[in-house]
């Protein structure tokens, strides 16, 4: 008879649950929006300004560009909120005041 090593399900703990995504959009949407805006920025560097206005005036491209800006604005806003919430401590506030040359922050 073959014997397998004993396993104890009661002594093993379940794998940790990954943290939920705090951002309002998935990675594919964010990557697409970033690519669209970076492509537009690259084109603006390469071509005369008049051509940029002509390409932006096309409604379909303009709408996609505006939607990409809104999506990234929402994502970046959420990221900044998360970072700011994690960093709000008295020590961070004191360092900020020191770096800014303030005695204290009036609020």
Structure description:
The chain is mainly α. Helix 1 (27-46) packs across helix 3 (59-87). It has four helices and no strands. The chain has helices spanning 27-46, 49-57, 59-87, 90-100. The protein has a domain at 27-100. The model has no long low-confidence stretch (mean pLDDT 72). Helix content is 64%, strand content 0%.
What's a quick, concise take on this entry?
With 107 residues, this protein is mainly alpha-helical. It has a domain at 27-100. 64% of the residues lie in helices and 0% in strands.
Give the fraction of residues assigned to helices. Answer: 55-70%
- Overall form: flat
Structural class label: mainly alpha
Major beta sheet, specifics?
none
Return the string of H and E elements: HHHH
Q: In what range is the share of β-strand residues?
A: under 5%
Number of helices: 4
Termini separation comes to 77 Å
Low-confidence stretches: none
How many individual β-strands? Answer: 0
For the residues shown, what is the average pLDDT? 72
Q: Give the radius of gyration.
A: 25 Å
Region (Disordered): 1-26
Biased composition (Low complexity): 1-12
Biased composition (Pro residues): 13-22
